[in-house]
Design brief:
There is one protein chain. By secondary structure, the protein is an all-alpha fold. The protein has helices spanning about 1-30, 30-50, 60-70, 75-90, 95-115, 120-145, 145-165, 170-180. The longest helix is centred in the first third of the chain and has 27 residues, at about 1-30.
Length: about 180
Amino acid sequence: MLKKLAYNNKNIRLFLLTSLLVIIGLLFYQKLFIFSIILVFSGILQYFTHTQNIKFNLGHVFFFGLITVKEIGLIYGIFLIVFAEFLPKALSGDMEVMSIIGVPLSIGLMVIFSLLKESNFTLIASLLVLINYGVIYFLSKFSGESLPEKIMEIIFPLFLNLVYIFSISGPILSIVGRVITV
């Protein structure tokens, strides 16, 4: 009984500490707080897909990179690409030539997006997604990837990114924008 009470007490303290950190983060460090949430979510999801041998790319890091650049800033977007795309692949041992090419390409497209971020998000983001995965598809022809690999690593995330942009980017941009401007 005493051990169970001590365990529950630890959980309550952990919950209270987490709640306090969330409140402090929302009150004083909005950009860093939102960026941290996006980074941790994206990085864990990316790491999980690579360590569990899930054979398709969800494409979420590029999408969240665009959201981050638009609402928080270019430097945060670059950090997101490096720490949520490159680092999980490196830690899981799933580095490929296309990963090494894809990260600088994504960073370059984030820089371009930062120059155009005041334009129509849906249009510019869609074009950048098409450019990103088009270049990766073109370069994958030289790497000798099979068609099923290309579909799961390039075509599927291209499609998912377009779905993300056309379906959930509006609400996400609205929520992030409101939290940051509070």
